[in-house]
Amino acid sequence: MHYLTYVSLAIYFIAMLSIGLFAYKRSTSDISGYILGGRKVSPQVTALSAGASDMSGWMLMGLPGAMFLVGFETIYIALGLLLGALVNYLIVAPKLRVYTEVAGDALTIPEFFAKRFHDPSSNIRIIAAIIIVIFFTLYTSAGLVAGGKLFESAFDVQYEFGLFITLGVVVAYTLLGGFLAVSLTDFVQGCIMFVALILVPVVAYQEFTTADNMMNFAYESIPHFGEAMQNVSLLALISSLSWGLGYFGQPHIIVRFMAIRSVADIKVAKRIGMSWMTVTIIGALATGLIGIAYANKFQLKLTDPETIFIVFSEILFHPMISGFLLAAILAAIMSTISSQLLVSSSSLTEDIYRVVSKKEATETEMVKMGRFGVAGVAIVASLLAMDRSNSILSLVSNAWAGFGAAFGPLILFSLHKQSLTYKAAIAGIVSGAATVLFWIYAPVLADGEALSSVMYEMIPGFIVSSLVIWITSIFSKDPCHKTVKTFNKAGRVLAEER
After folding, report:
1. Where are the domains of the chain?
2. 3-394 belongs to which CATH class?
3. Is the pLDDT of residue 148 over 70?
4. Which of 131, 318, 377, 489 has the least CB density, counted as fewest CB within 10 Å?
5. How far apart are CA 110 and CA 102, in angstroms?
């Protein structure tokens, strides 16, 4: 590896740590600042922060790798994600921004659920927090796997060494600056990812004379476009598109809507966020497609298709640019890990420690506990990530489905259904998470395979949770007058701010 590549990466690491130090001085004196940046985040930072924390290492490694292996069927996953993100901005973002503030200034999703239903026992808050910690630990491990593979492939170092470098930098700036550091670094990282996912496929395409020439080489390994689109089974199509359902329940994404300055700013964030997402997803798919053609033309053998972006970065660019492109992968990985660590830490401190300890902790103590939470989740996730055979896309898909099914239906019902009851909320969370876990791990098919080999676990999980919430609400006691009053107040505030 050329020394200029190391220089580029060093500059990137220093920049991220500097942002963490800046945020440490600006926003971490109280727990609201540490968790939500004081609800003063701009629409530009909100949009790119949501996008960068959403797309993670799978955008530059998992998605191109899926296109490389499967072909054009991967497009359906991209379409599902784009539709889900758009609907999230339209029907979740405005109401969640207002409702979480009206409902006792809730700082976390579990706290929002507790205050939405005026739950004095805090059972729903603790259950939701436990689910967040479990699935985010799994999700964080996916990012660390990506970091380990990056350093192993690009720098020829041990996988474990790369894993711990990734972990060390992201934990450092998350510990220092909290939400503001995570959001600002996500903004920078989102810009880097945007440029990289345009640059790599455009430069790689120059290795072919025409588009037809490139596609002819690609068709040596994958079915033609028309054939691939027509031959997709109905179950496979539904499974791919259903990725979009996950957006409604992803705490690390929707928490951005809670922190934005105002409801009016959400329209600006939507335009920026959807434009960014469209360009980067097209770039990721193009990287995988051109990668197939390039591998066939030049007899390139890849032991791991998820490293095609890394391979292009090394062989097609000047060492200084290679460093920038490798930093883009690190940006994608770190932006998501930092968001997940912060949300997990928030749940551990605000929704478990504060509730279980039942004592009036100081703001300084809560921020300190939040930092301990970041470190604790990071350690467990790193132990899970030691198995380098894990597929990045597979780990992400499992955690994505877990959150989408456990929280997605409840978020929608909570924001749009006044008569929703406390019992229905708990039943929805538990049934959604349990269905996903059963679908992934129970070897119920004849060959010992799990049901996830037939249909993506998001679909049954989301359906079961929605049905349980609806049916339980019908047969349970009406919500208390405080719940109805808060719901109506949120509606009035939203109408005024719009």
Report:
1. 3-394
2. mainly alpha
3. yes
4. 318
5. 15
